[in-house]
Amino acid sequence: MALSLAAVLAGCSTTTTPGSKGVSPLVAAANEEAAATMRIDNLFAAEGTTQQTELPTGNATYEGLVHGDTGGGSGPDLEYYADLTLEVDFDTDGITGTVDNVRTDLGGFITPSGSAPVTGSVSMAPGDAELSFAATGTLTGVDRTATYDLNADGDFIGDTAQAARGTHTTDFIWTAGPDTGDTSWSDGDWLAEQ
Q1: What is the CATH number of domain 2-193?
Q2: pLDDT(8) > 80
Q3: The model's pTM
Q4: What is the rounded distance in angstroms from the CA atom of residue 104 to the CA atom of residue 49?
Q5: What percent of the chain has pLDDT over 70?
């Protein structure tokens, strides 16, 4: 775990705004992700994935992060983190939420404004309790704008679905700026806790 965290941190810029104190947004997010990953790994080791029969009733709010590694495409490479909020209605199996506070390593798009609403569902198939969701929205940076398009799936973790995690693919479809018409691909993981 320490080696992978070191690799993540080594790939992050440590440049801060002139006159600011602290670490860059990507390094801070990587540290937050590492701490949450450790908590969820410990929960998984103790309780495993949530079974369909263990899902609670009512509503639950999960908060966490999306992390996307450089993936490719015709647009510029970028790594990113974003805050993730999932509102899960276990009675209707519906998921809503938001992806916001996006931070990237791409110049002119370091902390773009905007958010992407989340829609999704809880799988009712027998076995492990699974979820899938998507988010689409517009992000605007200093000199470029993109349509953010995320598709994710994963599992609930713990005896009462205390956490969730999984993988995603993301497209940044550039609609304004130097890369208009191009697409940057990213994939990675996401995690969230109650």
Answers
A1: 2.40.128
A2: no
A3: 0.87
A4: 31
A5: 88
